[in-house]
Write a structure and sequence with these properties.
Length: 71
């Protein structure tokens, strides 16, 4: 799994996820998202267009990120 991110003029982050999002890779994405949300951006975009498969661990990380976004 690979990640790339970029910034815009508003305080935002785009996280592009590629490859499988599963029990093995989900902790890495969780760490990346936690660090991203700790910087308090105005917007976070998680780009999943190149995710080849996702299991419940991947879904759980996305739900957790949604909860962080509301905080």
């Amino acid at each position: 799994m690979e990640f790339s991110s970029r910034s815009f003029k508003i305080q935002s982050r785009v996280i592009h996820v590629t490859g499988p999002l599963n029990a093995e890779s989900a902790p890495k994405l969780r760490e990346k998202l936690r660090k991203t949300f700790d910087t308090k951006p105005q917007a976070v975009i998680i780009r999943l267009t190149d995710v080849t498969s996702m299991d419940t661990a991947g879904v759980a990380v996305l739900v957790e990120a949604f909860q962080w976004s509301k905080a």
